[in-house]
Acyl-CoA thioesterase (Algoriphagus pacificus), 153 residues
Amino acid sequence: MFEFDPQKHYPSETESRVVIRFQDCDPLRHLNNAKYFDYFFNAREDQVPKLYGLEIMDFIKKYKAAWVVYNHNISYVKPAMVGEWVRIMSRIIWHNHNTIVVEYYMTDDSKTQLKTLLWSTLRYVTLAEGKSTDHEGAVLEFLKATSGNTDIR
């Protein structure tokens, strides 16, 4: 479970280095459009526990709530190619009392060429009713510590 330590610096951005797999590509050797989501979400899922000591399932079990995606905005700038090493970065760029926006972006290995940008908007909802609920406790501390946005009105 995440425990905020005021003496600790929490990076606001995660980063992973991954190779584009053959099975995820189309006949033109481009990463399939839908596969970008898998690469983004898997990278964040791998990095959050390493950077913050947080397993999202701990939050879900304790607070009986989870984030549910209700909007994606994605821009495919330059294709990722089979066998190419890429960098995937992610960060929470905004949050309020019950919503977060996570930004994901993919670059070439040297981080000089943007390939894809994704903004995902997620609502925090209760497991039992599926209704919006407010961020509280360690969830709110995590958001304050790791996002660039501190406006939680």
